[in-house]
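We emphasize that the prediction below concerns an isolated chain of 254 residues; any contacts that depend on oligomerization or on bound cofactors are therefore not represented. The input was used exactly as deposited, without trimming of termini.
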Amino acid sequence: MSGRLVVIGLGPGNPDQVTPEASRAVAEASHFFGYKPYLDRLELRPDQTRVASDNREEISRSNAALEMAASGHRVAMVSGGDPGVFAMAAAVCEAIEAGPREWRDIELSVVPGVTAMLAVAARVGAPLGHDFCAINLSDNLKPWDLIERRLVAVAEAGFVISLYNPISKARPWQLGSALETLRKHLPATTPVIFGRAAGRPDERIEIFTLGEADAAKADMATCVVIGSPETRLIERDGKPPLVYTPRFSAGVTK
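Result of the prediction step, given as a C-alpha cell string:
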C-alpha cells in the first residue's frame, strides 16, 4: 500500500503568507518531517506527529518521509519559503531517484510558498521588476569558484541578484567575498537590500549602496538583493525609499 507525500512551503515566516493550499495540506497530513524551527510554526492536532531533524540532514529526512509514505501514511515534508527554491522538494526528488523502485509509485505533490526574495522585494518596492536570478552562497554542495563565476556572469549580464544563505558561523567570509567580486562589475551606487526575517516580528530591512554594503549586517535569516545597473531608488519625504528595477532595459554597457 502506498500513501502520499506532500512537500509544503510555509513561506518566510509570517502566518498571513501561508497559502490556503498549504493550510489544507497541513490539515490532511498525519506525519510531518522537517527542520525543527519550521515544524514549530505548525499548530498540529493530537493525532498528528512531528519528526524534527537538523537542517543538514535533507536526504536522510527525505528517506524517512518516503518510507513512511510507502507504508500507507499521508506524510508532509515541511519547508520554509518555497520548497522548490534551495529547499526540500529537490532533496525529495533526489531521494526518489536513488531509492527503491516503489518510491516512484508514491503520490507526490509540491505546494508552493512565498520565497524569501519575494517577501524582501515586496517590502521595498519592486527590485525584481526586470530580469533577476537567485544564487545560493553556500558552498556545501558546489565549489566556491563556481559561485564566483556565476556572480560575475549575472552581474555582467545585468541581472538583479538575490543571494540566499549568505553567511553563517561556518562560512563567515563568503558574503564579503561575493560583495567584493560584484564591486568589480557593478557601479558602487547599485542598491543593495539586506532583508532579514521579512514579515516576522524581528524583521529588519536595510538599504545600502554596493559601495557601502557591509557583510556583517547579514546572517542566515537574511536574503540579500543586489540591484542591476538600472535599478533605481526613489527618495520620499518621511517615508522609506522605494527601490525598483524598470520593466524595460536599455542594455548593459561596460
